[in-house]
Amino acid sequence: MSLHFTKIFLSAGIIWAVSELAKRNNTAASIIHSLPLPSLLALSWIYWETKDTQLIASHTHGTFWFVLPTLPMFLVLPALLKSGWGYWPALALCLTGTFGLYLLTLWVTRALDIKF
What we know:
The protein is mostly helical. It has a domain at 52-116. The chain has six helices and no strands. Helix 1 (2-24) packs antiparallel against helix 2 (26-34), helix 3 runs antiparallel to helix 4 (53-67) and helix 5 (73-82) runs antiparallel to helix 6. The longest helix is centred in the C-terminal third of the chain and has 25 residues, at 87-111. The model has no long low-confidence stretch (mean pLDDT 91).
C-alpha cells in the first residue's frame, strides 16, 4: 500500500513544483513541464510492478502516437489567449480540438495497421 502513496505523492509533488516554479521562473518551469516526467514516472511504475519490457515497448509506442495530437494545443491555446479569449473557453476549444485529433489518430493508426 505504501508504494501507491509514494506514486501519488511523487506525481503530485512534480505538478505542484512546476506550478510554484512557474510563478518565479516561467522558463525553468516550462522546460521541466516539457519533459515527459509523467510518462517517465508511469513507465517506471509499470516496470517496477510488472518487469514487462514488452508492455513498456508497446506503451511508449502508443504514447508517441498520442503525443502528436496534443502538440497543436500548445500553439493554439496561447494564440487564443493573446487574441483575447478567456482561459476556460480557450481551454475548452483546445480540448475539443485535441479530442478530435485523438479520434483522427486512432483512425489513421488503424488504417495503417499500427499496433501498440
